[in-house]
Backbone:
């Protein structure tokens, strides 16, 4: 690989453990749906899964396909046969409140970003989902001042693994693909491969220490 000048970084399941946050926050919302709509938790879950599937099918490969507000809007429509704006908004608030409570930055991730700064490497978070939610996550993790750029699938108009969002990222940090490395979870491997960019996998906290060796 040519001289390293920039780092592309995934956010979810790379800087923190996504699955735990998502599962616990979703569970809290299903409990609320069960109580408010007076249905059992199993029925609440079935309607939620059906709603999520419908949203993803219609909005495939867009940031909105991951919108929790749309998931809950559609879930309540399936249960009540109407749009319940207040309840959909309430559930979205419950979800993100619970989600952010569970978020913890992986060990050594901050040290990695600080090392990138010392090495004068350009850093950009390349992430799916909407900009507001991803900004709030980054701020909650306390790394907002340690990355140079953030690009989301909302502004790129398409999700990873599309090469389009990667091209946007390279343009922002003014780097060529042979001068960067993509650091992310297993789902990002395909994005890196399609763009012919070197890739490093993060699957556990200790991997950030190994990643530091790449740029030392």
Residues:
């Amino acid at each position: 690989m040519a001289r390293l000048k920039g780092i592309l970084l995934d956010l979810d399941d790379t800087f923190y453990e996504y699955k735990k946050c998502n599962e616990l926050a979703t569970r809290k919302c299903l409990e609320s749906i069960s109580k408010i709509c007076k249905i059992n938790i199993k029925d609440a879950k079935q309607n939620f899964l059906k709603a999520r599937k419908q949203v993803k099918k219609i909005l495939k490969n867009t940031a909105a396909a991951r919108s929790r507000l749309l998931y809950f809007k559609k879930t309540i429509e399936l249960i009540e046969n109407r749009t319940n704006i207040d309840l959909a908004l309430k559930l979205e608030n419950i979800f993100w409140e619970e989600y952010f409570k569970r978020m913890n930055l992986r060990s050594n991730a901050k040290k990695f970003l600080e090392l990138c700064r010392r090495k004068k490497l350009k850093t950009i978070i390349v992430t799916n989902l909407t900009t507001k939610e991803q900004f709030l996550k980054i701020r909650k993790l306390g790394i907002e001042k340690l990355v140079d750029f953030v690009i989301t699938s909302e502004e790129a108009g398409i999700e990873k693994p599309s090469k389009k969002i990667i091209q946007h990222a390279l343009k922002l940090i003014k780097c060529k693909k042979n001068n960067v490395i993509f650091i992310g979870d297993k789902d990002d491997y395909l994005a890196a491969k399609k763009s012919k960019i070197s890739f490093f996998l993060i699957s556990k906290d200790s991997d950030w220490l190994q990643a530091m060796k790449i740029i030392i």
The mean pLDDT is 97. Strands lie at 6-9, 122-127, 149-152, 180-184, 198-201. Residues 164 and 186 are 19 Å apart (CA to CA). The chain is about 55% helix and 10% strand.
